[in-house]
Every structure is written in structure tokens, then in C-alpha cells.
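Notebook entry, structure prediction.
Reason for the run: the old model in the group folder had no record of what sequence produced it. Starting over properly, with the input documented here first.
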Amino acid sequence: MELKGFIGALYKLGDWVIRLVYVNILWVLFIGVGGIVLGIMPSTTALFSVMRKWMKGETDLPIFKTYWRSFKKDFKKANLLGLVLGVISLILYVDYRVILISPGATFQILALVLMVILFIFSLMCLYLFPVFVSYEMKLFQYFKFSFLFTFASPLSTIIMLVGLFFTGILLTMVPGLIIFFGASATAFIIMASANRAFGKIKYKIEKNHIQQENIVNQ
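New structure, fully documented this time:
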């Protein structure tokens, strides 16, 4: 029997809390399974993959089996993605070191440019995992489309940033929560916001397609 009202809402909240704690534990566990360095990216993509399925209504899926299947399937591809991210981050770090030794006005100009690049890069990284688990693409296309989604639905990006901001405050105020919700709560907010952006873009594409068909049929 489905519970309704306050009790039903409380039950659903408790159910989601348990889910988030469980996948947070799996995230840490599978990082270890991958040898830490090689486990970070595939464990994170597996976390987002499970989140995506939940948000599609697949709440009764076998969590561990789904997580493990995603981890194995994307192990190589996720680590290649991480390698590219590492190279880009290294380039940005080298640029930062160069800027530090630049004279006067040159330093100010380059510092401003780097700040803009870092901001855009950070936003792109937020969309990278949702795009990775939602679409089948070539490796570098994930970066391209993550960049496009960042600006295609500005409100979704703002919602994502606000959600992460308040989550960060909560985790800072109660550090013990990081152990249980650090990765899973963050992934939940990012995936939910990204799904909103995906839906908006899909709606716009379908709307434009219908309008074009109407023009052709007139």
C-alpha cells in the first residue's frame, strides 16, 4: 500500500537518504577497487549512471549490480576522460605559473583571462559526468557538448551552482555528513540540474522541428 501525506513524504525522504548513503559508500569502495588513481573516474561515472537511472524512475534497480556493471563498462573510457582532464589541468597550472612571473600590466591582463578560462572550465567539468552517462559520443565530443550545455540552459547552470553552494555550506557546517553524503549529494544536485538542461534543449529542438514541419506543410 502506497503511503500518502506527511508519512508518505517522510518515507520517501528516508528512502532517498538511505540510497544516497549507500552509493556514497560504493563510490569510496570502487575507488579502492580501481587502485585509487584508476578508480576515481570510473567510480564517479558509475555514481552518476545510477543517479541518472533513479531520476528516470528506475528506483527498483539492483544498485550494487548496476554500479559494478557501469564501473566495468566505462573503466577504460572514464580513465581516458580523466587523462584528458589531467592534461588540461596541467596546462592551466603551467599558465598560472607563467602569469606569476609576468611583469605589471601583463600580469593583470593574463590573470583576468585565466580567471575567465578557469570559470568556464569549471562549469564545463560540472556537466562532463552527466553528459558522459547520458550520451554515447567520442571522447572529445564530451568536452564539446559539456561546454555547449553550460550556456545552452543558463538557468539550469545557475540552479546547479546555487545547489552546490548550499550543499557545500551544509557539509562545512556538519563535516561528518561528508562521509555519508559528500559525493552522492553533490552528484545528485549536478545530475538533477543537468537533466533539466537536457530536457530544455530537447524541448527546444522538438519545438523547432515541429515549426519547420509546419512551414514546409503550409
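Summary: The mean pLDDT is 90.
The old model has been moved to the deprecated folder.
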